[in-house]
Amino acid sequence: MASLGAPLSPVAEEYLSWLAVERGRAPNTLAAYRRDLAHYEAQLAATGCGVLDVRPEDVERYLATLRATGRSPASVARAASTLRGLHHFLVDEGGATRDPTHELRTGRLPARLPKALPEAQVARVLDSVGGQDPISRRDRALLELLYGTGARVSEAVGLNLSDLAGGDGLVRLYGKGSKERLVPLGSHAADALARWLEGGRDALAPARWRHKGDADAVFLNARGARLSRQGAFAIVRARGAAAGVELAPHALRHSCATHMLAHGADVRVVQELLGHASVTTTQLYTKVTSDHLRAAYDAAHPRASLPAGSR
Are residues 45 and 158 both part of a single domain? Predict the structure, then answer.
């Protein structure tokens, strides 16, 4: 695998700049594109081929290599999407005369259903974090926020104090492409955040802030800097494990959506809450709740199924 810091060709760098400036792609998305392009160009260089010289068979061979080395279908599909974007850009900008991905076919991935936790498991994790020390208050606030608002972990760690300052029960989140949305802050999440901000955050705050943006951060790490995505992942996993639940931040987001739909929320409301660009993405959660409803019905209704041997 090519190094994440491997230099890219000027045309690939120009493509990434275009994605950042013209398309507003998020830093995490750009990092994923950079990794894909670095690996792609390294493989091309090993065969003596440059990006502007690529033929359709070169692209097919590259994707076949990814499959042969054990890449998942989703990973291969993402790489193919990255290559399409790059070569489309080169043609549109006049850097290339033909697009080697024009007739590329990678097949359609089956929709992956989100994995939501049972409500009792979520409650068990949340209730297990009950200490009054600064770390416990922070962790409880983080968990309650992720589940209560359906926020992505990057949105949670990116929160600033000013994003909570409205006093109207809403929190401002910045999603993919820096798109802003206001979401309700439930009473449990609001109470956990208040306990953290009033009695815990100051204990972790340093006498002097090392980085400019840390002073306004809602969530701090033990060293008094803004909590990172990796730090938040570690907190959620550790708190889940302590409660006997395998847990990741995105599972709390999935659980928020699934539980709201199960309790009658409109799919459009959940779409707005999660910041999905398309309602099609949100509708994956309706399939989850439908499956749960079917299973509960089959198990509980006296006439859900015919007696054995009745046919």
Answer: no
Predicted pLDDT of residue 183: 87
Q: Is residue 185 domain-shared with residue 233, that is, in the same domain? A: yes
Buried b (16+ CB within 10 A) or exposed e, 161-186: eebbeeeeeebbbbbbeeeebebebb
Q: Give yes or no: 285 in active site.
A: yes
Bridge partners (DSSP) listed for residue 172: 182
Q: What is the mean pLDDT of the chain?
A: 85
Cα distance between residue 217 and residue 80, in whole Å: 37
**Tokens 């007739």 label which residue?**
103
From the candidates 39, 201, 239, 253, give the one annotated as an active-site residue: 253
| Per-residue pLDDT at 102 | 86
**Cα angle for residues 94, 95, 101 (degrees, 5° grid):** 95
Residue ranges making up the domain that contains 71: 10-92
| 179 catalytic per annotation | no
Question: Taking residues 231-246, what's their average pLDDT?
Answer: 94
Q: Which of 172, 250, 287, 292 is catalytic?
A: 250
Q: So what's the pLDDT on residue 283?
A: 75
